[in-house]
Design goal:
Blueprint lengths: L5 E6 L11 H12 L3 E9 H5 L9 E5 L5 E9 L6 E2 L2 E2 L1 H20 L6 E5 L1 H15 L3 E5 L5 H4 L3 H8 L4 E4 L2 H9 L8 E3 L14 H8 L6 E6 L8 H11 L4 E6 L11 E5 L6 H7 L2 E4 L8 H8 L4 E4 L13 E4 L4 H13 L1 H16 L3 H17 L1
Parallel strand pairs: 1-2, 1-7, 2-4, 7-8, 8-9, 9-10, 11-12, 11-14, 12-13, 14-15, 15-16
Antiparallel strand pairs: 3-4, 5-6
Length: 391
């Protein structure tokens, strides 16, 4: 089989020294680059957010380096964003899309003077996927987008009909779950044969089981406590408050918790060992110090935090909803109603009291994560892009 040699990746934000944004996009780009593919990134940045002081303005061009030391050039497409409001038949989101598309195209045309791209890859439907498809059709280059959204909000911004129009002719879609593929088919956005399912993955060079006792000593955690870990935004959809309430309900002084993330819905329960954000490279230490991972989330595309927890050897308690079907099975998890605090408490109690069951699920979690490495995902996606582009 032939191969994709050069990809233009379009993303609504990309990590920088000032702001960690869409780190999972960079992880995929790094894996593709380290596999021998040349990746050039055009990352959008809203000047509206800069003007409001929410972000520092990024340079027009910068260089990032992969774990193997390879260079990735990142161009910044500055644009004016607009809120998502409907005024009569007009949607203000269309203004932001037009501004972003114009800015990305200026950079893309400049790159085409010296570069040849085998594919354009947009991360998420709006705006990156729509812009990728626009450029692909205009410049006759195969275009793709990744669909990993936890809801249909990026479709709803412009409405089904307009979104369908802007995605018409797309070469292929990288869906992070079978459930996301089902949504695209149900909404008639893309024909089924153009959609490949590739669950999110983990950097196994970073996320792997460390010695639990050693991590507890390093972090100053109680050596004999039962530690429950949570990673995610502190929002209702993720459920830190429901987990916090479940821990309180158990009324067990030997249960401790780690809440990694930030947001307005602060957890409040006894024996919290950590509550707040961490640098991404620090998270595996905290996960390795824990006994179980709990995420009572109500909506996901395909949850990176769950896969990272499994790679660190943690049994998982999470939602019995379709978005988890591709990554969570009974051998490695307990699946439940994420809105039911009693069920969450019962599941935590069950794993705390049954060390043999906990060990079985931990072993299964590690084995399953080995098949979800970022290197394998990058390889599978590149093969899919080539097949779709050459059909």
């Amino acid at each position: 089989m032939g191969k994709i040699k050069h990809i233009c990746v379009i993303a609504d934000g990309y990590p920088s020294e000032y702001l960690v944004k869409n780190a999972f996009v960079e992880t995929l780009v790094n894996a593709m680059t380290d596999s021998g593919v040349n990746c050039t990134v055009i990352a959008m940045q809203s000047l509206s957010r800069v003007a409001l002081g929410k972000e520092k303005k990024l340079p027009d061009c910068r260089v990032r380096h992969t774990p193997q030391g390879n260079r990735v050039t990142v161009w910044t497409a500055h644009y004016l964003s607009a809120s998502n409001k409907k005024i009569g038949s007009l949607r203000t989101a269309a203004f932001g899309l037009h501004s972003a598309q114009s800015s990305v195209e200026r950079i893309f045309k400049k790159l085409l003077q010296t570069e040849t791209f085998d594919a354009i890859y947009g991360h998420f439907i709006n705006p990156a996927g729509m812009i990728a498809n626009y450029l692909g059709r205009k410049y006759h280059i195969p275009a793709f987008f990744a669909y990993g959204e936890s809801s249909t909000h990026t479709i709803d911004c412009l409405g089904d009909e307009k979104t369908r129009e802007l995605l018409h002719g797309i070469t292929g879609v990288v869906s992070v779950s079978t459930e996301n593929k089902r949504v695209l088919i149900e909404k008639n956005m893309v024909s089924p044969e153009r959609i490949g399912v590739f669950p999110n993955s983990v950097d196994t060079g970073c996320f792997y089981p460390r010695d639990r006792a050693a991590m507890r000593r390093e972090l100053g955690f109680p050596p004999d406590g039962f530690i429950v870990a949570f990673v995610g935004r502190f929002l209702d959809v993720k459920g830190p408050d429901r987990l916090s309430a479940a821990i309180e309900q158990l009324n067990d002084d030997n249960i401790y918790s780690i809440f990694i993330g930030d947001g307005p819905l602060k957890p409040a329960c006894r024996n919290m060992l950590h509550c707040g954000p961490l640098q991404h490279e620090e998270i595996p230490k905290y996960l390795s110090a824990a006994d179980i991972f709990v995420l009572p989330t109500k909506a996901e595309g395909c949850c990176n935090a769950i896969i990272e927890a499994m790679a660190c050897g943690l049994p998982v308690i999470s939602s019995d909803l379709p978005f988890n079907d591709d990554i969570l099975k009974p051998d490695r998890s307990i699946l439940l109603d994420p809105t039911n605090v009693d069920e969450i408490a019962d599941a935590v109690r069950k794993l705390k009291e049954d060390s043999a069951l906990r060990a079985e699920k931990a072993d299964a979690a590690i084995r399953s994560a080995q098949f979800l490495s970022i290197e394998q995902r990058a390889k599978d996606i590149l093969e899919f892009l080539y097949r779709q582009a050459t059909e």
